[in-house]
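Hey,
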Amino acid sequence: MKRALTLCLCTICIAALIAQNKLFINKTDNTTLGAPISLIDSISFSTDGSAILFHMGSTAAEYSTISLDSLSFGENATTVYIVLNGAIARILNPLAFEGVSVQVSGADVSITSTTETSDINYVLTGTTTNGTFKINSEKRFNLLLNGVNITNTDGPAINIQSGSKASVILADGTSNYLADGTTYATAPLNLENVEEDQKSTFFSEGQLIFTGAGALNLKSAGTDKHALCSDDYIEVDKGNITISSALNDGIHAKEGVRMLGGTLI
């Protein structure tokens, strides 16, 4: 059976090479990982058949067979999708083996990007009443809010731990809602061994540029926290941003706020 499945996988891979250039590993934990076919030397099973190994040069990505739902093929993409659904998050990460790592715990999503590729798109959609989205990227990136509703009971709803520029796109015709809790949990330590900043419902270490014709509503209930904050500057080029409440500043930026378009209420 194992030999037959191996031969089947080889046949599928050869056929896929003709028209497709990425293998998608669909896991049972609601995560899909994309691997460039050009990087995969071979696919094999462990001696007892309990694990499947994707050999890429001198390394191998190993998964238990019961953790895999299916394999599929598709084109290259630079868009990572995060779909929040109550207490879980569904992830499509086509750059999983190209420097973009996604960690998920319930509806808490944390992304680390070490790739040299700039302007990767991260699309957030769905609803959770107990989740967060955090990202640390070495390069500038785009964050598309596509009808997302996030409440984090113990910290920021969106937490950008990156000094790189983040272009926040409010998808046309969508309403997006972010809220924090009254008390923030202790922040983890960053690479400098000090606690990460988490100063607001929507926080960024770097520049925030807002575009798109959608709407964003921010609510902050955290003691001494802001609703929207950047340790660099905030620029609004387009979109409708509403600050519903904040115990500190509604909008706070160390290097200033620029309004070139849109509305801020």
